[in-house]
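hey so i finally got around to running the thing on that chain from the lab meeting. sorry it took forever, my laptop kept dying and i had to restart like 3 times. anyway pasting the input first so we r on the same page abt which one it is
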Amino acid sequence: LEYILTHIKPFQEAAGKCMLKQNPSNNNLCQIIKHVAPLRDTAWEKLLAKNPSNDNLCYIIKHVTPLQGVAWKKLLKQSPDKRHLLDIIKYAQPLQKAVWEKLLKQSPDTLDLMYIINNIENLRKAAWEKLLRQNPTAWNLRHISENFADLREVAWEKYLKQGPSNHELTAIIMYDDNIREKAWKRLLDQDPDNSTLKWVIDKFEPFREEAWERLLKQNPSIEELLEIFKLAEPLQLGKACKLILNQNPSNNDLREVINNLETVRKKAEKRALEQEISNKELQKIIESIEPLQIEAGKRVIERAEKSEDIPYLCHLIKNVKTL
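ok and heres what got predicted. didnt touch it at all, straight out
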């Protein structure tokens, strides 16, 4: 009967009548009240006679608009707790103000207030003002800053007073579009390390130039500068090339520059062949840097005096037709 009542509309009333004759439970009566309007008053009277629980009354308030008022009055006499009040406040708009006033008397905690802020637009401002007096967490403030434009400025200022770490700020930059720029400005004020700046250069084009300028002031290593070549398109990268070339780079470093940055290729090419370089490294240049193939090949031929040089000559015969 319960299945028919809730799923098969043409037979709902018949199923409800049968249930009323079989000493129905409170839950059965609540379902009859919800699904069978002609039997609603009869089922409601039976429910009242059986001392409905707070859960029963909340169900009626949420699902049966014509009985919301009387069910609410009955609920008030039974001392509902915060769980019941939060359960109905979202669904019974005519009762929201009354439910809110009742909830305030029960000292709603941060989670209760966040539920109101997220779900009840009419009560959002009141819940926010209450939350501000109860020391909201950093997560509360971040969530509100991201999702509610009218509360954003105050929430963000409150969040900053809690001293967010650089790690927390990078998380905001990554995930929160609406406050990304604010988080970036704060991050710059908190002396981000080179690793953090490299991450920004890689991920966020709007902040790339500013992050790059800051990185240059923090004495980046050759390894860090080479990473920038791979992470971002040329961004004043002539400066990076100059810094690398002034730090006694290895041949591997120079190959990275040659392979990743067209605008500084010529400088790196020249440096690569000016230094002492093994046949193995010359072989890599022949394989990967076409403009240097002939010059590197000539270097191999000039030094080919021992039997162990034969594989390099074979490699040269294979790859550089002109030699």
